[in-house]
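Quick entry, no commentary yet.
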Amino acid sequence: MSPTFEATFWGFFSGAALVIGAAIGYFVRVPGNVVAGVMAFGSGVLISALSFELMEEAFKVAGLTAAISGFVLGGLIYAVANHLLAMWGARHRKRSGSQQPSEEDQAGSGMAIAVGALIDGIPESIAIGLSILHGGAVSVATVAAIFLSNLPEGLSSSAGMRQAGRSAAYVFGVWTAIAVACGLASLAGYAVFGGFSPFIVAMTTAVAAGGMLVMIVDTMIPEAFAEVHHWARRFVAIGFLVSFMLTKITG
């Protein structure tokens, strides 16, 4: 398998978990506490992956300056984007209850939710392509972490979309388009940055990590805590440990 095809395939594979989760969330009445528990688990998985895979790799490639500057930049970019999207109706895009606004409640919220979901997935997918660029082969731990976190994300968000009265065509159109975009973003992470200096590649890896962490804190953990409260911390810890073990076993 060529690196170019590998980057595209694994980006699409991880993004496909959004579609699988969306199908479960849209057609199956999954209890809110189950959705929240899985969301908390996915949060822990991603926190571990961005710590031990992305930030560690950025530090190894170009040192502390690249890792810190990229991480801060990624966090700021995502925070600003998320703030704007929240103003346009996408604040609760990962919520499984009735928090998401319908188009009648807030015009343009459907597009804002779709764009928000796309922005959530892009840093993760770029990280997959960059992992191939760093090591010559995809990071199994990174792909597994993103896949495991995308399932509850798609599940929760699509359940909320259904509650807001959005059609199946809208829901699956959004998640399928995002899955394709994830494959292209992963390809870009490998192909576009291959010609850049190690400092830029490392900084971009850290940008993805910073964006992912802010996304987790802003959108995933609130959904988990709202439903399962103090159990959320336990599920986050379990997810973190599972991802940590994957990192060490596959590394």
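second:
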Amino acid sequence: MSGHNVPGDDSFRLKAAAAAVAEVRPGMKLGLGSGRTAEHFVRLLGEKVRAGLEVIGVPTSERTAELARELGIPLATLDEVPALDLDVDGADEIDPELRLIKGGGGALLREKIVAAASKRMLVLGDPSKTVKTLGAFPLPIEVVPFGLQATRIAIEKAATRLGLSGSIALRKAKSGETFITDGGHFIFDAAFGAIPDPVALSGRLGDIPGVVEHGLFIGLARGAIIAGGGELTILGSLG
């Protein structure tokens, strides 16, 4: 799945990624995010590494790990490097308080673990990703396969208590089979629409035993680099 697309948004992603690479310093331990925007960052970082920049990357998905290896970026696991200096990732939605919806690519669990282990998280995006209220993009909720329908019902009840409703669809892969995350879990995409209180929803979802993680990233992003219309907009702080 991808976020909202706008014409030429790939060039926007490249500009945002270049601005993020400028924040990288020699010796940094980096979280390498997933998705198209993050891949631009990884590719540009690879160029810097080939030119002599010494960094260590911790990838948030198998796809990112494969790309980083191809580019010659030294990699480590989060067990080997449990504290990171900087995490650079994309987002499906970004609100004015730097709260995010992530997980369109299916890597939300590892992305959130890496973000939480980082001193600062920078989010890359284009103007189509910025919203006043989260929720136009369906919220990914990663769940264990066991007890799937019981978990779906619990999610519906939690949403109803907060005045939210909408379809909760089990994500399918392009093959038509059920989508399976790198961690071996399934994903429900919850089309709740506008989420007025993402903090409350985050808490409710976190209380459901079958929910492994969800795509609400709250209090993790330090800053966002939004590229569009020929200019860069910084939300929050890059430092």
